[in-house]
Amino acid sequence: MTVGKGLMLAMLLATSHPQSTSAGDRELGQYLSSECVTCHQVSGKAIEGVPPIVGWPEDQFAAVMNSYKEKQRDNPVMQTIADRLKAEDIAALATYFGGLPPAQSK
Fold first, then answer.
1. Maximum separation of any 2 CA atoms in the chain, in Å
2. Residue 56 needs a FRET pair 20 to 30 A away by CA distance; which of 76, 91, 95, 102 works?
3. Cα–Cα distance for residue pair 51/40, rounded to 1 Å
4. What's the pTM value of the predicted model, to 2 decimals?
5. Are 92 and 29 in contact (CB under 8 A)?
């Protein structure tokens, strides 16, 4: 009975925090990243006003993507892309890009 209540509580907590910092599926993130890297550089360098997205902490990446999804950030392209992503897709992208080394400044 206690295990059931613990499981129920864990499920409730997981679903009540869509911007959870739990690690996503890195391979799925790599697969989904093909659309992202048409603008964002895998090298981590900013090019023509497009900010780098590699090396970010996963929770920050997810928060930014969710703010585009909820139309709290103004960028129609990013809003459209984020709107198509499920929570597990955002987590997967956060894990993939978060695991890439940021650009080294020279």
1. 59
2. 76
3. 7
4. 0.75
5. yes
